[in-house]
Amino acid sequence: MEMLTVRQKERYARQLLLPEVGEKGQKKLLAAKVLLVGAGGLGSPVAYYLAAAGVGTIGIIDGDKVSLSNLQRQILHTTKDLGSFKVDSARKTLLQLNPEIKVVTYPYYATADNILQILSDYDFVIDCCDNLATRYLVNDAAVLSGKTFIHGSIMGFQGQAAVFSAPEGPCYRCIFPQSTASAAKRPIGVMGITPGVIGSIQAAEALKIILGVGSTLLGQLLIIDALELDFMKAKIEKNPQCAVCGDNPTITELRAENYQ
Ligand SMILES: [Zn+2]
Asked: How far is the CA of 177 from the centre of ligand 1 (A)?
């Protein structure tokens, strides 16, 4: 692998000092390809920190456009970006921060028809979406592809994060085994700090996985309450009856009707 350039040595100087990173780790970061599903409240801090750290290829899939009510938490986007695709706005911001990386954009939503193909170009996937149907879709795609899935979600001042690793599991369905994902899509109140904390934790897990250091949230669900500032970790186990990663899976391919 190539040597780091003088500019790279300067840009990443403070993390190169860490024995867990060093030049070897930095090259791993530069070679990594990570897919983010969602460029909103969670996708913003995740993408920011991965880009700043020099994760070489960041893919972002999101069909939504920037609206004024997004800006109090979706900090990749600015008032100037109103009406733009979030992925375009995200790409612009991230390349301003770090022009050395590659940001690949998918200006449409993840579906049963496109997610496996897109995911095949990446090492693993990060859940930055805001709805259950997409979360189950991405979880199932990750299991079927044998790829790690870094989950994050928020509700009000509460948030949760976990790392799911296929095929050994557990997966998101092991702990939340609904077969269909029909949740009302009404907006829930949130302040930007909650996705900020959860997204930063997801980015930390992603960087550790790329570097192969530390221990991750694999097999654990982190639950935080930002209002009372409580952090709790619960052990999670693979469910042998899980519909996608269990002993006799019923989900062996992605069908659009399962993710409405
Ligand atoms: Zn499972």
From this structure: 8
Amino acid at 193: I
For residue 184, what pLDDT is reported? 59
Work out the burial of residue 159: count CB atoms within 10 Å of its CB; fewer than 13 is exposed, 13-18 middle, 19 or more buried: buried
pLDDT tens-digit series, residues 71-87: 999 999 999 999 999 99
Backbone dihedral angles phi then psi of residue 154, each to the nearest 5 degrees: -135, 150
Distance 245 CA to ligand 1 centre (A): 4
Query: Would the CA dihedral through 73, 74, 76, 78 be positive or negative?
Result: negative
Gap from CA of 233 to ligand 1 centroid (Å)? 19
All domains in the chain, ordered by first residue? 32-259 (3.40.50.720)
pLDDT in tens, 49-76: 999 999 999 999 999 999 999 999 999 9
Q: Distance, CA 164 to ligand 1 centroid (Å)? A: 9
Which residues neighbour ligand 1 (ion) by CB within 5 Å?
171, 173-174, 242, 245
Rounded CA gap, 44 and 74, in Å? 6
- 148 Cα–ligand 1 center, Å: 12
pLDDT, average across residues 123-139: 96
| Contact present, 25 and 12 (Cβ < 8 Å) | no
Contact 110, 132 (CB under 8 A): no
Residue ranges of the alpha helices (H) in the chain?
A: 6-11, 13-16, 22-31, 43-53, 86-97, 115-119, 132-145, 172-175, 193-211
CA of 69 relative to ligand 1 center, distance in Å: 35
pLDDT computed for residue 94 by the predictor: 98
